[in-house]
């Protein structure tokens, strides 16, 4: 089935090796001959066999995007940014989901060993102990770019946003609005981005001489029911917080759900601000103040870095570090 | 680099061909020998070369999910359902996005010709003229299952929800609540699911002796600004609708945006119901009445069908048609 290099060679009365070299854009073949072969191949709708050519040219034409999930609006926008670049370069994007499971991440990365993909863009699972699979990938010939969720211990290019400053600014906004007891809803203990956001929160708490015990850090998980129970306990307890910072989109909307359920008024009883790229933040009840990450731009920038490495093998990206700032958008939840 | 079949054979003092057959689960090899080889391969962290084995066994270990986008909550949940099944089967899921562009869909499908994936799950781009690429895929040896957005003209297994009934029920709910002029926000002229939903709407309009001209169908596009302008014109015009049905999530939230902007009260001025899988529908202002599609179940069911075909080559799925009903959840937007 399909048109082969052999058939193209026979039809054009040219040696098979010449056709093969022309299709790989070899400098051994003249421009005229290349043009004639490529034109005919296009006309015949020739598709290279990805596996056969992978064995020789070590190119799959795929890049991998490894993510914890796609339900978060940050990641769906970041994929759009990555796809914009990949499409221009004629590459396929393969999306792999880890679902916050390090063993799944390890198994996905293991599959990349044998040339299945030419490069990897990655937002890592929260985990501080097992980084061998990331180190191994970083040491391999496959270029790797972390975006958003980076692994601090693994050497690789990274595209991030200003998480520390954003955490600080979010806290300062609540303090400026009059909040006295602010809770920080964290998500993962071993994730650089939430740790940075939390460090920014802690700095603002210190600078304003607030008492750390009255401004607690609450660790949420991937279990929605557990989080709801935990936030409910927090908001029904003594010394109820009058301000909440959601370190990721999910816990922010969960805080809304609890306030609706136990009839706490936002912002009168509790002001809420969240890290989120949610397009419909303005439609929530009340509209949600967000720290909006430049998701699309981060995806696009990470993909551009990756293609830089794919196109010029000698470039070493490992020390590249690009920071794109987030934007704080005030809405009614912090009035 | 890495452990090869040769090394395993040498270490275990078994013929290379025996190891190779055992790893492909050949019936020629005894259970005991297989177990011994698999155990040792696992211990040595053996990874098969996907390209080499693809050339022989014609198995890539990948299934493709081809979707218009991941920003819609339906698709992100459907992916979760697909992943649950694929993971159990030891397969990798590769997500490809078409962004509603039929030429992109064609180029993606073309890449599947040469064994890059073992099977395809697909929600198609809206398009009624160009179906050759789908027909060709359906005629190939690669099993194909449509889910949600099916191509009516192409023979393939399909997993859908009850779009006609849901469109009818949504309209009847608005009529029961007292609406007299209902607008149906459609999305694509050439898409089976929105056409079905619209046909259900038209049936309810007819049965209640409503005048079709006062109950218009408005065609939205993928351009958000255009849709907002169109919906604004609709809601500022004479004979303003007092009920709106959003045929997809995006146009439903756009109708909310317009009502907020021009200060129309939902549900007092306009009642709104939308096809959506949005988890935070209850947090919108006001909470949104939805027809919630069984996204996770649909993804899971489609993947199960695909693996049925992958595991028993002789099964012909082309006439399989599974319908999983949607659920209407009443909230404040239709009070």
Could you explain the architecture of this structure?
- Two copies of one chain form a homodimer.
- Chain A has 335 residues and is α/β, with parallel strands linked by helices.
- Chain A has twelve helices and twelve strands.
- Chain A has a six-stranded parallel β-sheet, sandwiched between helices. A six-stranded mixed β-sheet of chain A has the order 7-6-8-9-10-12, sandwiched between helices.
- In chain A, helix 11 links the parallel strand 8 (243-246) and strand 9 (271-275).
- The radius of gyration of chain A is 25 Å and the shape is elongated.
- The relative contact order of chain A is 0.12.
- Mean pLDDT of chain A is 89; it is low at 50-58.
- Chains A and B meet through helix 4, helix 5, strand 2, helix 6 and helix 11 of A and helix 4, helix 5, strand 2, helix 6 and helix 11 of B.
Brief digest:
The structure is a homodimer. Helix content of chain A is about 45%, strand content about 15%. Chain A has helices spanning about 5-10, 15-25, 30-45, 50-55, 75-90, 100-110, 130-140, 165-175, 190-205, 225-235, 250-260, 295-310, and strands at about 60-65, 90-95, 120, 145, 155-160, 180-185, 215-220, 245, 270-275, 290, 320-325, 325-330.
List its traits.
elongated; 6-stranded mixed sheet; 6-stranded parallel sheet; homodimer; alpha/beta; about 325 residues
Low-confidence stretches of chain A are 50-58
CA radius of gyration of chain A: 25 Å
User: Major beta sheet of chain A, specifics?
Assistant: 6 strands, parallel
What is the tally of helical segments of chain A? 12
Determine the most extensive contact between two protein chains: A-B, 50 and 50 residues
Structural class category of chain A? alpha/beta
What is the overall pLDDT average of chain A? 89
* Binned strand content of chain A: 15-25%
What's the shape of chain A? Answer: elongated
Helices and strands of chain A, in order, run as HHHHEHEHEHEEHEHEHEHEEHEE
How far apart the termini of chain A lie comes to 66 Å
Structure summary, number of beta strands of chain A: 12
Share in helix of chain A: 40-55%
Biggest sheet: strand arrangement of chain A: 2-1-3-4-5-11
What does the oligomeric state look like here?
Answer: homodimer
């Amino acid at each position: 089935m399909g048109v082969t290099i052999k058939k193209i060679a026979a039809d054009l009365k040219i040696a098979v090796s010449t056709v093969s070299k022309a299709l790989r854009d070899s400098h051994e073949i003249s421009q005229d001959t290349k043009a004639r072969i490529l034109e005919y191949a296009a006309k015949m709708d020739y598709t290279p066999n990805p596996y056969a050519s992978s064995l020789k040219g070590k190119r799959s034409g795929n890049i991998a995007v490894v993510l914890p999930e796609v339900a978060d609006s940050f990641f769906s926008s970041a994929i759009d940014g990555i796809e914009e670049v990949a499409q221009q370069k004629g590459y396929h994007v393969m999306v792999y989901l880890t679902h916050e499971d390090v063993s799944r991440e390890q198994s996905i990365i293991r599959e990349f060993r044998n040339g299945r993909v030419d490069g990897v863009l990655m937002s890592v699972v929260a985990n501080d102990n097992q980084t061998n699979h990331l180190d191994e990938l970083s040491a391999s010939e496959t270029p790797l770019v972390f975006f958003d969720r980076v692994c601090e211990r693994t050497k690789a290019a990274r595209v991030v946003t200003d998480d520390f400053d954003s955490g600080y600014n979010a806290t300062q906004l609540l303090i400026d609005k009059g909040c006295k007891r602010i809770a920080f809803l964290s998500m993962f203990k071993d994730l650089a981005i939430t740790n940075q956001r939390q460090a920014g929160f802690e700095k603002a708490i210190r600078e304003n001489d607030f008492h750390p015990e009255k401004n607690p850090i609450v660790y949420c998980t991937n279990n929605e029911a557990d989080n709801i129970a935990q936030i409910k306990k927090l908001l029904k307890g003594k010394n109820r917080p009058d301000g909440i910072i959601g370190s990721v989109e999910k816990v922010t909307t969960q805080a809304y759900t609890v306030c609706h359920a136990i009839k706490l008024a936002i912002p009168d009883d509790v002001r809420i601000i969240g890290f989120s790229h949610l397009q419909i933040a303005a439609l929530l009840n009340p509209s949600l103040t967000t720290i909006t990450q430049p998701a699309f731009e981060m995806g696009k920038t990470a993909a551009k870095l990756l293609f830089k490495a794919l196109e010029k093998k000698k470039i070493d990206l490992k020390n590249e570090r690009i920071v794109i700032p987030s934007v704080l958008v005030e809405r009614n939840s912090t009035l």
